[in-house]
Design a protein that fits this description.
The chain is α+β, with helices and mostly antiparallel strands and about 400 residues long. It folds into two domains: about 5-75 and about 145-215 and about 335-385, FAD/NAD(P)-binding domain; about 85-140 and about 220-335, D-Amino Acid Oxidase, Chain A, domain 2. It has helices spanning about 10-25, 55-75, 95-110, 120-125, 145-160, 205-210, 250, 265-270, 305-315, 360-375; strands at about 5-10, 25-30, 45-50, 80-85, 85-90, 115-120, 135-140, 145, 165, 170-175, 180-185, 190, 195-200, 220-225, 235-240, 270-280, 285-290, 325-335, 340-345, 350-355. The strands form four sheets. Strands 6-7-5-15-16-17-14-18 form an eight-stranded mixed β-sheet, sandwiched between helices. A six-stranded mixed β-sheet has the order 9-2-1-13-20-19, covered by helices on one side. α1 (about 10-25) runs parallel beside α5, α1 (about 10-25) runs parallel beside α10 (about 360-375) and α2 crosses α10. The structure holds flavin-adenine dinucleotide. Flavin-adenine dinucleotide (FAD) binds near residues 11, 38, 49 and 199. This is Glycine/D-amino acid oxidase-like deaminating enzyme. It comes from Arthrobacter bambusae.
Length: about 400
């Protein structure tokens, strides 16, 4: 008899799991509380970011995930937006140069295609950036997706393979019998299946708690603005120097100096900034992002967060000072204390795929791994780092996360 699977959550991880599981011939139903792409996957600016992925599982899955986009572009029934124009982190203080030099050398040793760019090269790639930019680390392997289009294409692929994707269905509790998962309770009645996949992103802790289970998956809110469509002027995905301090790969360098990476805007606003800009094919430029850590999922941008984006971008991208703003929003990304998700069978028949910090590179590939786990085959990547029973620190709401 065909194995039946329920998937909870319609983000990159859930839709990809549905697509690959349905391709294996499994009988798949996906339950999404709002609409496909409602969570972090529909709200992020689309960096497929290998630049700062830690060696080990994170870099392995990101490299595979980056390559998987070629297969998905060929196989999914509807197109999605993908651009392979690299990514950079610029800096505008000469004192930061030795740190970036050391960072690029370390990343080259990790096997990434990276170089250090100078002023003219950065300005050629990023039109509106400040003239006194000193340089940038550049990774040719970084790419960009229009994330909602990827989720929509994965959902269309899953449906084309026979999966049933239902929107507006909230799972309130998991149902067990004799220690084995047998189904879920929802606002639309109970659903039963042989196996259940939890792909509920930043909502996972809440869902697990309702079923008397604990998992330390935290929530980080990031705020974003989108300009109106503008002429094409930013080719790669772009981070500013404030973003460097978010990554252990920078912070652990012998040359690291934290004070050089703290801005006046951060001090005034109280937010750590992940200064970023990325331009989509339709011309809109996504800019951001102040970061904070709500105790529950909170999808509202704040006035002081939006002010911090405006101040930061006017400072570093004077060419965007007069850009019309079309939309603002916030999204919440999930994380664990060791920065890699939980992807494992956590009880008989119950598989967790949650806690993705870098879902754009790892999300679609996670779906492929989930289909291998569901069909009891050896996953094609070593999964030791993401197993359920590893030691994870508890999440402390409000505590700053560094990746
Ligand atoms: C602003 C922002 C910027 C980011 N930038 C990047 C980036 O540049 N690169 C990158 O790789 N990653 C980035 N991320 C992280 C990335 O978005 C996530 O890693 C990824 O989207 C996680 O995918 P997911 O499918 O696990 O979760 P989600 O996309 O959040 O999907 C979970 C889904 O589950 C649904 N759900 C939850 N609970 C229930 C329930 N009880 N019943 C039914 N449905 C439920 C939700 O509605 C949601 O649609 C960013 C995140 C944000 C918010």
């Amino acid at each position: 008899m065909t194995m039946s699977v329920l998937i909870i959550g319609g983000g990159l991880v859930g839709t990809s799991s549905a697509y690959f599981a349905a391709r294996e011939g499994l009988n798949v139903t996906l339950l999404e509380q709002k609409s496909i792409g409602y969570g972090a996957s529909g709200r992020n600016p689309g960096f497929v970011w290998l630049h700062c992925r830690n060696p080990g599982w994170a870099l392995n899955i990101s490299k595979k995930g980056r390559a998987l986009y070629d297969d998905l572009r060929r196989d999914l029934p509807v197109p999605f937006e993908f651009r392979a124009d690299g990514g950079l982190i610029y800096f505008h203080d000469e004192r930061q140069a030795p740190i970036f030099k050391e960072f690029v050398a370390a990343r080259q040793a990790d096997g990434l295609d990276m170089t250090l760019l100078g002023n003219k090269e950065v300005r050629d790639l990023v039109g509106p950036i400040r003239e006194d930019v000193v340089g940038a680390s550049y990774c040719a392997e970084d790419a960009q997706i229009n994330t909602p289009t990827v989720v929509a294409a994965l959902a269309a692929g899953a449906r084309a393979e026979g999966a049933d994707l239902r929107e507006g269905v909230t799972v309130s509790r998991l149902i067990f019998s004799g220690g084995r998962i047998i189904g879920v309770e929802t606002n639309d009645g109970n659903f039963f299946a042989d196996k259940v996949v939890i792909a509920s992103g930043a909502w996972t802790e809440k869902l697990m708690r309702a079923s008397d289970l604990e998992v330390p998956i935290g929530r980080e809110r990031l705020q974003v603005m989108a300009t109106k469509p503008l002429p094409m002027q930013i080719k790669p995905v772009v981070y500013g120097p404030t973003a460097a301090k978010a990554y252990g790969l920078f912070r652990n360098l012998p040359s690291w100096n934290d004070e050089l990476f703290r801005s006046k805007i951060e001090e005034e606003s109280g937010y750590e900034m992940l200064t970023l800009a990325a331009q989509r094919a339709n011309g809109e430029i996504l800019i951001g992002c102040p970061m904070d850590y709500p105790s529950e999922v909170d999808l509202f941008p704040t006035l002081d967060g939006l002010k911090a984006i405006a101040d930061d971008i006017i400072n570093d991208f004077p060419g965007l000072k007069k850009a019309g703003i079309d939309r603002v929003w916030a999204g919440v990304l999930p994380f664990t204390s060791d920065l890699v998700p939980v992807i494992d069978e956590i009880a008989p028949g119950l598989v967790m795929a949650a806690g993705h910090v870098f879902g754009n590179s790892a999300g679609p590939m996670t779906g492929k791994l989930i289909s291998q786990i569901l069909t009891e085959r050896e996953p094609e990547i070593d999964m030791t780092e993401v197993r359920w029973n590893r030691e994870l620190d508890p999440v402390i709401p409000g505590a700053t996360l560094h990746w």
